Amino acid sequence: MNKTRNNELIRLADKKLNASKILNNGNIAETYDGKTAALSVSVAMSDLLPALAIYYQDYDAKHPDAPCRRSVLDVVATMITDPDKNETFHDAKGLLEYAIKHPEKHKDLKREVIDCSIALKQVVRTYNLV
Predict the structure, then answer these.
(1) Which of 61, 59, 54 has the alpha carbon at shortest distance from 39?
(2) What's the rounded Cα separation, in Å, for the pair 3 and 38?
(3) Residue 4 pLDDT grade (very low, low, confident, very high; cuts 50, 70, 90)
(4) In 10 A of CB 109, how many CB atoms?
(5) Strand pairing report for 27-28 and 23-24
(6) Which of 42, 59, 58 is nearest to 50 (CA)?
(7) SS3 of 125, please?
(8) What CA–CA distances, in Å, run from 4 to 9, 14, 40, 108, 112?
(9) Among candidates 90, 8, 80, which has minimal Cα distance to 43?
(10) Where are the alpha helices (DSSP H) in 19-105?
(11) Of 33, 50, 64, 46, nearest to 96 (Cα)?
């Protein structure tokens, strides 16, 4: 990833993070730091679908505002453009469904998820971790 692309993704990550439930009055639960940092590593080590599935399944319907990996994946998904619709994915579900239906796109999608999660990790660390 070149510097220009990284700068664009950092600005986009900040915008999407501000629109998410993760950021609360300039504060982020400290657990999100690790979850965000681990996403790119998880995709690189275990491949796209296993990493997306692990992050997607980590959700507690009884406590939807509790820190979970799906929240991180939701933000990353909104940073990535769905090639079929020419708009960003709305959430983690859309990204996961697309990845399942389009194995021929995994190489490009994997790179996007890694790049976006790295940018998000950099942005998360600029806020107060509580």
Answers:
(1) 54
(2) 22
(3) very high
(4) 21
(5) antiparallel
(6) 42
(7) coil
(8) 9, 16, 20, 18, 15
(9) 80
(10) 31-46, 48-57, 69-79, 92-101
(11) 50
CB atoms within 10 A of CB 2: 7
Contact in structure between 52 and 95 (CB atoms under 8 Å):
yes
**pTM summary value:** 0.91
Contacts of 40 (CB under 8 A, 6+ apart): 113, 114, 117, 118, 121
User: Would you say how long the chain is, in residues?
Assistant: 130
Q: Tokens for 1?
A: 């990833």
Question: Of 35, 32, 9, which Cα lies nearest the Cα of 21?
Answer: 32
Q: Render pLDDT for 68-103 as a digit per residue (tens, 0 to 9).
A: 899 999 999 999 998 888 888 999 999 999 999 999
Whether 51 contacts 43, CB under 8 Å? yes
Residue whose C-alpha is closest to residue 72's, from 55, 94, 97, 53: 55
